[in-house]
Design brief:
Layout lengths: L2 E5 L2 E5 L1 H10 L3 H8 L3 H14 L5 H7 L6 H4 L7 H13 L8 H10 L5 H17 L12 H10 L5 E6 L5 H13 L5 H6 L1 E5 L6 H4 L1 E7 L5 E7 L1 H18 L5 H4 L3 E6 L6 H5 L2 H5 L19 E2 L21 E7 L11 H4 L3 E5 L3 H9 L11 H17 L26 H20 L5 H16 L1 H12 L8
Parallel strand pairs: 3-9, 3-10, 4-7, 6-8, 7-9
Antiparallel strand pairs: 1-2, 5-6
Length: 488
């Protein structure tokens, strides 16, 4: 299995060779000297661009042959192992004017439009470049200190991202953050009704299908009171129709306002992985691609030969989708999911690659941000430091001792288990309440089918860590010093 290489809150698989190159960059004096002649984030981005785009990188040939005083562009040529492809990439970089003085925006624009870089690589590169630029002082906020809301809004507003999936452990506030980010991008000056007009939220479930999402034959009551079957829009197509018609009105009225033309609409899909996505999306997978958005990406839907009707049974006049369905360019699709309800690997890869992925990680920073947001009621607010310490201690047990059961960070306990709690007299009572009524049963469910004795031992470790985090910390120190506490 490929190793994971982490950048900030995100992780992705890299081959051993690529990881070796990444480590080597920090150690080679000649490379450090070359790097000094560049804006560091430009140089690093060019190197990582190749590393993310191709997995044939040889660490040895990189160090031996490609580090020279002529700068990064020349060294890129032999990294891929395919001379023709390497030459095309190098020429492409030169024609685009990417050099030591390129700005952060220049790099983003190049990566976004380049056909030499895979879609997956583009997503990771945009994240990496933003992080590198931060280290160089182009921003006053590091990736790790950015809130998830800030990351989402930045990628949509500045990165041009139109599809993103928020993933991570249950209860990390993914749907809440998606709605909050959408409202932030719409603007604080909008009324509540204007905001609702531009945000639609649906929740997927195993029974959700194409007829719910795109279009289908549904019963309606005619003007004579009789039941008839007609083609009606599903939730997503109805939303797209509304946006397309609004866009058409703006164009017909010759509204020059840039804000009007760039007005974004948000379609949020909660629990996106709980439905059979290939059946739900159908031919819409084609329309999701950035260069297939708008009227140029029209497709014929399954019931395109039938006229469309409103839900009241009236026919749709001047149907904007009469010549084929399309997704307007100003619609942002945000999906949320947790990986343990249904594995990420089970998602259709053709659909998967069309989304950017952002993992919500449960760590002290994210927990502090969440609890500072007022999750606990006023009476329990003073216990938040104790709660954070207990969650961190419990999650360490889940990842270490729980690994033999197949548990990892996707099974972490998060702040979502602490909402709507009754007032407690002290932190111990609060933690005991949460363990008894919210956590123990969840953790037992994680271990369904395992050996009963092993389950009880693990549950005991979890309980001890959660209710006595200071004891757990002492155990960790003991283990680091080589004493695991067992009898000799």
């Amino acid at each position: 299995m490929a190793e994971e290489f982490r950048l900030g809150k995100l992780s992705f698989p890299l081959s051993t060779q690529i990881k070796a190159v990444a480590e080597t960059i920090k150690e080679i004096p000649d490379l450090i000297e070359i790097r000094k002649s560049y804006k560091a984030y430009v140089f690093d981005s060019l190197i990582y661009m190749i590393m993310f785009s191709y997995n044939q990188v040889s660490a040895f040939s990189f160090v031996k042959n490609n580090i020279n005083g002529n700068g990064a562009n020349q060294s890129l040529g032999t990294l891929t192992g395919d001379r023709n492809q390497s030459t095309l990439l190098t020429d492409d970089l030169k024609k685009s004017g990417i050099n030591s003085e390129s700005s952060l925006d220049d790099l983003k624009k190049y990566i976004d439009r380049s056909r030499m870089i895979t879609d997956t690589a583009k997503k990771e590169l945009l994240r990496f470049i933003t992080g590198s630029a931060v280290k160089e002082g182009t921003s006053d906020m590091t990736p790790n200190s950015q809130s998830y809301e800030d990351i989402i809004t930045d990628h949509i507003k500045n990165g041009g991202i139109r599809q993103i999936i928020l993933t991570g452990a249950p209860g990390t506030g993914k749907t809440y953050t998606a709605k909050k980010a959408a409202k932030a991008l719409i603007g604080k000056d909008q009324t509540e009704d204007q905001i609702k007009e531009r945000i639609e939220l649906v929740q997927f479930h195993p029974s959700y299908d194409y007829t719910d999402f795109v279009e289908g034959i549904r019963p309606v009551t005619g003007q004579d009171g009789k039941m008839e079957f007609k083609k009606l829009d599903g939730t997503f197509k109805a939303f797209c129709r509304k946006v397309a018609e609004n866009n058409r009105k703006v164009a017909e009225n010759n509204e020059e306002s840039t804000d009007e033309k760039k007005k974004l609409y948000f379609f949020i899909i909660d629990e996106i992985n709980r439905a059979d996505l290939s059946k739900v999306f159908g031919e819409l997978m084609y329309c999701l691609e950035k260069d297939k958005r708008g009227t140029k990406g029209r497709v014929q839907t399954q019931y395109h030969n039938l006229p469309s009707f409103h839900r009241n049974g009236d026919p749709i006049e001047k149907d904007c989708f009469a010549d084929g369905f399309y997704i307007p360019e100003n619609i942002v699709v945000i999906g949320t999911m947790n990986d343990i309800d249904r594995s990420v690997e089970s998602m259709d890869f053709a659909l998967r690659r069309r989304f950017e992925w952002l993992e919500f990680v449960v760590d002290p920073n994210s927990l502090t941000e969440a609890f500072n947001g007022g999750i606990l009621c006023d009476e329990n607010e003073k216990y938040k430091d104790d709660v954070i310490a207990s969650i961190v201690a419990l999650n360490k047990v889940i990842e270490t001792k729980g690994s033999k059961f197949g548990l990892n960070r996707q099974y972490y306990i998060s702040h979502g288990h602490f909402t709507d709690l009754p007032k407690q007299e002290n932190p111990d009572a609060l933690l005991e309440y949460v363990w008894k009524y919210r956590l123990e049963n969840t953790i037992r469910e994680y271990l369904r089918g395992e050996n009963e004795n092993s389950i009880e031992e693990f549950i005991g470790s979890c309980r001890e860590a959660f209710l006595n985090p200071s004891v757990r910390a002492a155990d960790d120190i003991s283990e680091e010093n080589g004493n695991d506490g067992s009898e000799q």
